Amino acid sequence: MKKRILHIIDSLSHSGVTSYTIRLINSMPYFDHSIISCYSGSARKEINSIQLLCNVLLDKTEVKSRYIPIKYWKFLLYLLRMKFDIIHYHQGGIGILLLAIALGKKAKVNHHLHSGNLIGDNRKQDISVMHLLVLKFMSKYTTQIAVAEHVYNEYKSKINKTENLILIKNSVPFLFRTKETKKNAVGFISRSTREKGFYSFLTLSSQMDTFKLDLSIKVMGDLFSEPKKNIEIISPSFSVDEFYESIDLLLFTSTAPESLPLVILEAISFDVGVIAYPLKGVVEILGDNYPLYINNPKDAISKIEYFYSDKFDRKKLTEIHEKRSNMYNFDEMIGKINSLYNSLLIKN
Questions:
Q1: 4-11 and 32-39: which strand pairing?
Q2: What is the pTM of this model?
Q3: 47-94 residue pLDDT tens
Q4: Which residues contact 36 (CB under 8 A, 6 or more apart)?
Q5: CATH homologous superfamily of 185-325
Q6: Sheet containing 108-113: which strands, arranged edge to edge?
Q7: Residues paired with 219 in a beta bridge
Q8: 4-171+329-347: which CATH number, 3.40.50.2000, 3.90.1170.50, 3.30.200.20, 1.20.1440.230?
Q9: 206 in helix, strand or coil?
């Protein structure tokens, strides 16, 4: 009989955390996986189509404070009637994680640290004293999985407890492939918040009209209700191959506390250049001397022009992408998660 694993996520969106969870589940069919999502989202239909067992606490796409008590109540009832061997918390709020610890019966609980600030709030880098105290309390009852070295070090320094802390770096299921021809296209993955670079993208896309180069802009997501000039909207999907194959550059203008961004790992696997701020998680992937870093939004335009100029060393960029991409092995990541699950099940 397969062991039962519950994965907790915040929403059925096409976010990095949801994508990670689905790839993890699809790579480990020897367990009986279920997903519980706090909120609905644009990916619900796609998730249902691949026949993953998924429950939603609130059939809402907007996260509002008045829904939080209802969310907790429904999750409490769900835990009381269900039984799992392992509860794998990816995202959803510290209150949800506390309920999983308290009411998960004999299930072992994993706390996956997907965010650079340990609690998953992309609006701020630092977390409150109250959050630190709660994290310290929970550290005794969970196994913490850091997805990046800087996240591991952040947890170690702030929580000062490492007996249940392990490092399993993010990875993506794509082998590196060299981009042979230019597509004259710049891409953006839709994240409609200031911290994720949405407003910077709007400014940049309007400025790109002045380029002498004939460039197109491709956006994967549902940011716009109406078509925009020079912007091709691609429906969001967990299948991203065609998107990356159709662009040369990815605009990643996030200023959020990123951990180890999956979209950057995806982009360099397809030999797509990344214009980004040198955040900790970004530098951990791309290295200190990546040639397309920016310091402010205005730099992005000059970097795009530089990339498409004869002065830019495309061959050297490809070498960087291949080297850095090969540092993150998807099968190795799955193997480590599998080993963790098995070690926890032995303790049950």
A1: parallel
A2: 0.91
A3: 888 888 899 999 987 777 888 899 999 999 999 999 999 999 999 988
A4: 6, 7, 8, 9, 54, 55, 56, 57, 75, 78
A5: Glycogen Phosphorylase B; (3.40.50.2000)
A6: 54-58, 32-39, 4-11, 86-89, 108-113, 142-146, 165-167
A7: 188, 233
A8: 3.40.50.2000
A9: helix
